[in-house]
């Protein structure tokens, strides 16, 4: 393994940042010595990567499928009382996709008419509110969704589904477009306005088939609340399936990571495709912060304790591992022997997901 991923920079004071910026401008360089990992950190990171790679290769796709199958999905509705209460009001998309009480996002009531939205905070090791995992908005919950984004100062939204898939409605049209530049939603007298600012296809650095639209909205709501939000719509991620395990998702996560506020992620139910994104970022967070990468089943267990039944299929679980393995390969962190094992792993993976 010849090089190592750059760690997160340490926080510096405003004066230090200003001085470093001046020095960088003088040197015409984008990096500072402070941002570079030390040799000790490089060794520790290399050790973590090797451990993850070794464990993944030893299990192989069949072993990972068995591991996933052992983690049964279930609903304990005693832990989802607000979800049950909201059923009658038509605030839940699916009766069998629960929303845990312990870390659900609560809307400020007042000014909002109620505090329920089908959404949970999900932590990564260095950020207790890194994600908000939520169901796709319903006609009845578009206002709730946008008020949540205003309340939580959300700067980034990942939409991983389409409005309809295989002839079934999966998501309400909760955002404006070039033709209809402003949309308005109301919930018991409270109005939310969403304005279209700009839109375009994401241009990825690495080669990818992924079709992702990046749109900027301005959201306005009660009490003069206003927020500019970037919305990434992944158009071709199949329901209950996986896209190509290339670098596209990691590039999007790198863009979103800059924001310290919660990143909203939703598919239709907000657990399958959504859970896959969260698990990948959880591993990246451990890696970038120099922590030990936990065993995959332990990571998924921790995510599911926050967003019930996250990751719905073994294909999605395999996808998380394939992405990470491809990332390490892309970074030229494998010697020849590991590269050959990675190739064999990928062949098995492709047979299982296609």
From TrEMBL:
<feature type="region of interest" description="Disordered">
    <location>
        <begin position="1"/>
        <end position="42"/>
    </location>
</feature>
<dbReference type="InterPro" id="IPR000242">
    <property type="entry name" value="PTP_cat"/>
</dbReference>
<dbReference type="Pfam" id="PF00102">
    <property type="entry name" value="Y_phosphatase"/>
</dbReference>
<dbReference type="InterPro" id="IPR000387">
    <property type="entry name" value="Tyr_Pase_dom"/>
</dbReference>
<dbReference type="InterPro" id="IPR016130">
    <property type="entry name" value="Tyr_Pase_AS"/>
</dbReference>
<feature type="domain" description="Tyrosine-protein phosphatase">
    <location>
        <begin position="64"/>
        <end position="327"/>
    </location>
</feature>
<protein>
    <recommendedName>
        <fullName>Tyrosine-protein phosphatase domain-containing protein</fullName>
    </recommendedName>
</protein>
<feature type="compositionally biased region" description="Basic and acidic residues">
    <location>
        <begin position="17"/>
        <end position="29"/>
    </location>
</feature>
<dbReference type="GO" id="GO:0004725">
    <property type="term" value="F:protein tyrosine phosphatase activity"/>
</dbReference>
<dbReference type="InterPro" id="IPR029021">
    <property type="entry name" value="Prot-tyrosine_phosphatase-like"/>
</dbReference>
<feature type="domain" description="Tyrosine specific protein phosphatases">
    <location>
        <begin position="247"/>
        <end position="318"/>
    </location>
</feature>
<dbReference type="InterPro" id="IPR003595">
    <property type="entry name" value="Tyr_Pase_cat"/>
</dbReference>
<dbReference type="InterPro" id="IPR052782">
    <property type="entry name" value="Oocyte-zygote_transition_reg"/>
</dbReference>
